[in-house]
Every structure is written in C-alpha cells, then in structure tokens.
C-alpha cells in the first residue's frame, strides 16, 4: 500500500504539470482571431469538436504550477506531528482521499477561472504536504529496526511514479484530451484511499486481523523505544530536538539532497534545450532513466543496509554514514565533473542520470534515520527536514533564474553546477560529522507521574 500510495501521490502532484502543455494553446491573439468554428469565452475557447483550450500567459501558467507548493509548505511539520498524535492512518488516508476528489473536479475549476485552479492546487498541496512526514510515525509502530531501510525504499516509488506517470498521461492527452488526466489519476487515488482505510491500521495492537505471532514479533523487535498508540501521545521536547546535532545532521543533509534534486529535475530540460540545443523532454528514455535508476538504487541499498544490520556486521551509525555519503557526496563530485564536461550532450545526460541514481541510496542513509534516533518524534523531525528542503526547491529556482537572466550561457551554468556541487558535498560532510544511529535519551521524556523508560540503541533482532 505504501509503494502504490507514494506512486499515486506523485501522480496527483504532477498530473497538471503534464496536462498544462495540452491545456494551453497560443496567446491572447488566438482568442481575438478565433474563427466561427470556435466559441471564445474570455481566456477559454472551445472548438467545434468540443475540445476546450485556454489562453494563459507564462505568468499565469507559473502561478498555477507554483500554487501547489504554497499549501505544501504549510503542512510538512504539522502533518508529521499530527500523525504522531492521531495516527498516520487517518492523516495520510484523509489527505489522499480529499486530494483525489479535488483532482476529479480540476477540469471544472479550470473552466471557471485560472484563479479557481490556483486555489484548488494550493489546497491539494496543503493536503499532500503531510504525506512523507506522516509515514515515519507509522513505520515506527510497524517496522522492526532490521527492516527499516527496505521499507523506506517503498517511499521512493514516488520517483518510479514519475517514470510511469509521464507516458500514461501523455497517452491520455493524445487519446481523450487533457481532462482525462485528472479523471484517471483522481480515480486511481480515490480507489487507493478506500483500500487504505480497509486494510491499514496505525499499529499491530489495533489491527483486527493480525496473528498473535506476528504482533508479538513486531512488538518485541521494537522493544521500549516506541510509545504504544494506545497511550497518550508524548509532548515534543522541542529544546532537545532543536539543539540536537543528530537531528540537524538529518535536516541539513536532506535539504542539500533535495536542493540538488529539485535543481536537476526542474532545470535540466532548460539547460539541455537552451545551451546544448537538445530537448530532453522529447526523449522518453532520457527523461525516465533517472527516476527508474533512483528507485532501483533505493531498493538495492535498502536490502544491503538491512543485511549488514541484521548480521551485526557494522553499527547502525556506520551504515547511515556510509550510505548518506554515497547518496549525497557522489552527486556532489559528479556536479564538479559537470563543470568541465557539461558542454557535451551525452556526458551531461550520463552525469545527471548517475547523480539522481546514486541519490536513491538516501533510503539506507539519512531518510529513515529519524526512526533510529527518536522513533516517537520521527514525524516531527522529518516534517522539519521536508519543510526546509521544500524551501530549498524555491531557492534553486531563484538561483537559476537570477544567474541565467538574459545570459543563458554555458559559463553561467558552470556557476550553477559549482553551487550544486558545494551544496551536495556540504550535506555529506555535515552528516559525517554529526550523524548517528543511536537512540537519543529525549525519545522517551517522562510524563506526569511516569517513570523514565529504559532507553537503549535499536538492535537488529530484539526478538
């Protein structure tokens, strides 16, 4: 359910990015010069065969596409904390359910006004912002320490979702028109949401169909590190969280990684088209390879990390540091190489594909590290990290825009590649210095009249 949930979550997020290419035609003169076979209405016109197109300038298109992130940023931290308090089943399930219903009415909003679709996408972003932070509190209740890296790789299905969504939506656009992309993706999300509520529960103790053997195995493997969902939720020890070196190791490495990811994914097509005169969006293989590679890397490194942990080969701290350095440091080195060989089309495609592929190893690195150091507050920690990393995505757009404004030369892009290299390497070094896999004492603060539970580092086989 997590694998398909994150794939469908990505569909709801990017369907408009793909559909808007077919939704928008021409410029304001198009409507003014509309023939008798077209019914022009303000910014919208309908052809004789019933197809509706819109005349939105670049400012309006960017406003529509960017509005998703207005709401997305607002719910990262609250979403993680809410999942810790009321459970991820409701938080994530309601988020996907309502987002799917709003996706189904997107064509109606578009026909009303571009402002209506801006508002609707902001609300969808608000709802989907809880997704990633909400999943960690559920993983803390269900996933034994020896299986957490493998589990986190399922969340990378969002990357695989990109490789699947683009061709599917492209076929829908060509066959049934742009409206079909919202009906199909919204319908898929709605079906998943109903299955989620039927099949998923917040903890083994709450699941009505789990066997006693499986429940005992999971609860014994988790030990005392995780607060039972049947008990009152713990207050967040904000002072300890915000002053914790291991927390900031997770946050800063995540920010650096996502900053690089957003820049590469969002700006690579522009660089390839304007500087190298090669439209990567028209090359389906070149477009999907980085996403596919990232998912396969996440899956493979997750298995390796959990194998090492279960065999007590090396410590959890060493595992997290090795894979974080691999996932964040190597893309930094590749961006440095890109500075010198980026004028070559083949080299650029290869470097960016490898950079995103290696980045998939974050599932065995920092991505699930909050479950190691503080499973009771893993949603809050991830919410902080994802909120700040989303801001990094905005900053990457501003950086590229300011450096290439009226000067889209290769020399300016070399500066961009240098900044990306520095950001990636900074994130890897910070994690090497501050990161740890040890359970933190503030994971189990004392409540009223409650004794401090025993804390110990998570072990690979507590059962």
From TrEMBL:
The chain crosses the membrane at residues 91-110, 116-136, 157-176, 182-201, 247-268, 320-341, 347-368, 380-401, 413-434. One of its GO terms (molecular function) is symporter activity. One of its GO terms (biological process) is monoatomic anion transport. Its main location: membrane. Residues 1-19 form the signal peptide. It is found in: Membrane. Keywords: Membrane, Signal, Symport, Transmembrane, Transmembrane helix, Transport. Residues 14-439 form the Major facilitator superfamily (MFS) profile domain. GO terms for cellular component: membrane. It comes from the Eukaryota. The keyword Transmembrane applies. It is a multi-pass membrane protein. Residues 443-463 are annotated as: Disordered. This is Sialin.
């Amino acid at each position: 359910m997590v694998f398909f949930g994150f794939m469908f979550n990505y569909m709801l997020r990017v369907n408009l990015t793909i559909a808007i290419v077919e939704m928008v035609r021409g410029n304001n003169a198009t409507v003014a010069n509309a023939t008798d076979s077209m019914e022009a209405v303000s910014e919208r016109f309908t052809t004789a065969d019933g197809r509706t197109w819109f005349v939105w300038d670049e400012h309006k298109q960017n406003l529509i596409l960017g509005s998703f992130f207005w709401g997305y940023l607002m719910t990262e931290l609250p979403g993680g904390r809410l999942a810790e308090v009321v459970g991820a089943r409701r938080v994530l399930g309601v988020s996907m359910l309502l987002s799917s219903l709003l996706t189904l009415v997107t064509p109606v909003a578009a026909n009303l006004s571009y402002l209506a679709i801006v508002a609707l996408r902001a609300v969808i972003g608000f709802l989907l912002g809880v997704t990633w932070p909400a999943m960690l509190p559920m993983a803390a209740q269900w996933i034994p320490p020896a299986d957490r890296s493998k589990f986190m790789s399922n969340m990378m299905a969002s990357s695989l979702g990109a490789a699947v969504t683009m061709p599917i939506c492209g076929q829908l656009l060509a066959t049934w028109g742009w409206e079909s992309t919202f009906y199909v993706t919204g319908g898929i999300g709605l079906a998943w949401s109903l299955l989620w509520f039927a099949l998923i529960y917040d903890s083994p103790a709450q699941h009505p169909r789990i066997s006693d053997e499986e429940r005992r195995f999971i609860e014994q493997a988790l030990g005392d590190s995780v607060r039972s969902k049947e008990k009152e939720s713990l207050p967040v020890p904000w002072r300890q969280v915000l002053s914790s070196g291991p927390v900031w190791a997770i946050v800063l490495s995540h920010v650096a990684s996502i900053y690089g990811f957003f820049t590469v994914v969002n700006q690579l097509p522009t660089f390839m088209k304007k500087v190298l005169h090669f439209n990567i969006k028209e090359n389906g293989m070149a477009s999907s390879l980085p996403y596919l590679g990232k998912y396969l890397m996440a899956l493979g490194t997750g298995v390796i990390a959990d194998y090492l942990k279960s065999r007590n080969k090396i410590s959890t701290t060493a595992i997290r540091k090795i894979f974080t350095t691999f996932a964040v440091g190597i893309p930094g080195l590749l961006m440095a190489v890109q500075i010198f060989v980026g004028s070559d089309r083949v080299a650029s495609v290869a470097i960016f594909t490898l950079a995103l592929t290696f980045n998939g190893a974050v599932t065995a690195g920092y991505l699930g590290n909050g479950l190691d150091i503080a499973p009771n507050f893993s949603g809050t920690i991830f919410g902080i990290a994802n909120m700040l990393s989303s801001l990094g995505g905005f900053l990457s757009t501003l950086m590229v825009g300011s450096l290439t404004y009226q000067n889209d030369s290769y020399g300016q892009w070399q500066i961009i590649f240098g900044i990306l290299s520095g950001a990636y390497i900074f994130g890897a070094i910070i994690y090497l210095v501050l990161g740890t896999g040890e359970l933190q004492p503030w994971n189990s603060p004392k409540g009223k009249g409650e004794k401090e539970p025993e804390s110990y580092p998570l072990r690979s086989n507590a059962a």
